[in-house]
């Protein structure tokens, strides 16, 4: 009878892809402008390894008319993220206007945001079908009992 | 980490504020913790009623995990000037994401 200690289940010992989560903050500035809106601007954040998943959230903002106050008609801000390898691009928009004219009052502002990114971790080579069990043990990917095979089965039966 | 995106819209309204509305998001896989983050908003006085002074604008998000797959996001939103008592029609849309792990 074959002992469980002699089998190495490769599928069982392959760990899930390791990841780490990082958070980076950024600021997008919108200079004074009139005549159009909302304004758009982009920023990029680089990470040391590939980004598997990411999103962005607003942590603060400022927007106002330039030099003088006006009635409020509409205000809007927004951020969106795009993943490209090790980079997360953040596209931001900001607009402020009253309901007279057509974006004819100069406005400006900024948005601060936090990028939450899930990164791939570099990991050692995983055992394949060509890698023997002793080699997998040597690489530290799996560990086997050091107890002599078949000498002390869990049920106390030698099985022989 | 799983991410869901959604939005909540508030139709033109007057007479009270701030207002609350909710939206449910569903994850493909179960999560044990959730959080929601503002990704944008568009707020305005109803264009047909003209513009007004800005007295106060308020926006708040809350995420409540209903079960491992479903999360209820509630947005609180108000816009008013300092005259009257929420007597000017206002409206808006709140954009957010929900991060679950």
Write the layout of secondary structure elements.
The complex is a heterodimer of chains A (160) and B (101).
Chain A: H1 10-13, E1 19-33, E2 39-46, E3 51-65, E4 74-84, E5 87-97, E6 107-120, H2 133-138
Antiparallel strand pairs in A: 1-6, 2-5, 3-6, 4-5
Chain B: E1 2-13, E2 19-26, E3 34-45, E4 56-65, E5 70-80, E6 90-100
Q: What's a quick, concise take on this entry?
A:
The complex is a heterodimer of chains A (160) and B (101). With 160 residues, chain A is mainly beta.
Give a description of the structure:
The complex is a heterodimer of chains A (160) and B (101). Chain A has 160 residues and is mainly beta. Chain A folds into two domains: 1-16 and 123-160, no CATH class; 19-120. Chain A contains two helices and six strands, in the order H-E-E-E-E-E-E-H. In chain A, the strands form two sheets. In chain A, strands 1-6-3 form a three-stranded antiparallel beta sheet, with no helix packed on it. A three-stranded antiparallel beta sheet of chain A has the order 2-5-4, with no helix packed on it. The radius of gyration of chain A is 29 Å and the shape is elongated. The relative contact order of chain A is 0.28. By secondary structure, chain B is mainly beta. Chain B is 0% helix and 63% strand. Chain B contains no helices and six strands. Chain B has strands spanning 2-13, 19-26, 34-45, 56-65, 70-80, 90-100. A three-stranded antiparallel beta sheet of chain B has the order 1-6-3, with no helix packed on it. A three-stranded antiparallel beta sheet of chain B has the order 2-5-4, with no helix packed on it. Chain B starts with a strand and ends with a strand. Classes of the chains: A mainly beta (160), B mainly beta (101). Chains A and B meet through strand 3, strand 4 and strand 6 of A and strand 3 and strand 6 of B.
